[in-house]
Amino acid sequence: MITGGVGGTGGGTSASSRTGVFSFCLFLPVDGGYLNSVLPVVVLALAAAALYAVSDFLEQRVAHRTAVELSGRDHARVLSGVRAVALLLLRNRIWILGWFVGTVAYLVQAAALHLGSIAVVQALQVTTLLFTLPLSTIGTTLRPRLVDYLAGGAVCLGLGLFLFARGVHDADAQPYRYRLMALVFCASGAIVLLCLAAIRQPAEGTLRATLLAVAAGIAFATSATMVKLTTALLADNGPGPTARDWPGYTLAAFAIASVVLQQAAFAAGKLPLATTAISVTNPLCGTLIAVLAFDERLPSDPGRLALFAFSAALVVVGLTVLPRSPLLSGGEALPELEVHR
């Protein structure tokens, strides 16, 4: 499972000075004391990324196998099919184990955010994609090629540099509510359109999985924004006024939607395919929300603009090469994990 924040608007930490972990990109000095302080953050963030990859692997194998088992049955394509898959997943011990591993990953990520800056943790979180490449081949004859790792590394490095170039902004910034509400409606509309387009595609296909994963990425980014707003309301106003306001209910709706869409993407295609689409969509959508709703200013200095351009080029190159990999588009059937139900 992939989580995401809205740049400086998601999660709370005051250690903005620690973003120098990537300061070599901007030719800024880094002393030894800083490296000692940031090392635990890097270790925790990478551990969280690896755990998220394991969680995604377990959940994807079970979701895909469950979808295959139900493909020959008489289920409607939308509500009844989703309900049938959900009931089977919730009864599957491997899927529950994957969910538990994902919860542990969330706690490890929270510890990293507590010790370090959001920019550092987010930048390292995208390495989940690299961990999923070898995991996705377990039980198959496929093996990641060097070009797969290079392409995945280009996407991860590009996203990491993009998140770092944005920097850390005021964690206490409040959104323009009407703008945020409009963006929530736009995100909902985009998710609906993507789902309608996915329904028209073959049950197991790269395009269907990609469309559902992009929808999941939008839902994850929107729910992260709602987490920030809801926790601020709870801290400032208490549970009563928060329960009478709309952000908490919006958070619940998008949190559920993100999980359902992620599992649907897992069921429709290969793990690296879904992970790539979510990993790219989540930070880009989060940045858009931060700029439009929280009035966050993107950097305008030449150094960071050059870093933006370089990061975009890396992502484009990676996304051009990676879809050609058999890991994303190969037709080999995935083996069933040993499950005791």
SSE arrangement:
Elements: H1 32-70, H2 79-90, H3 93-115, H4 118-125, H5 128-135, H6 146-166, H7 177-199, H8 206-237, H9 239-243, H10 247-268, H11 271-293, H12 302-321, H13 326-329
Protein model, in words:
By secondary structure, this protein is mainly alpha-helical. It has one domain (20-329). The chain is 70% helix and 0% strand. Helix 1 (32-70) runs antiparallel to helix 3, helix 5 runs antiparallel to helix 11 (271-293) and helix 7 runs antiparallel to helix 8. The longest helix has 39 residues, at 32-70. It is globular. The two termini are 23 Å apart.
Descriptors for this entry?
single chain, 341 residues, 70% helix, globular
Query: Unreliable segments (pLDDT under 50, ≥5 consecutive)?
Result: 1-31, 74-80
Q: Domains counted in the coordinates: how many?
A: 1
User: Treating each run of at least 4 consecutive H or I residues as one helix, how many helices?
Assistant: 13
Distance between the termini: 23 Å
Order of helices and strands: HHHHHHHHHHHHH
Mean pLDDT: 77
Strand content: under 5%
Oligomer: single chain
Query: Can you count the beta strands?
Result: 0
| Rg (C-alpha, Å) | 20 Å
Helix content: over 70%
Structural class: mainly alpha
Describe the sheet with the most strands: none
Using the alpha-carbon principal axes, give the shape.
globular
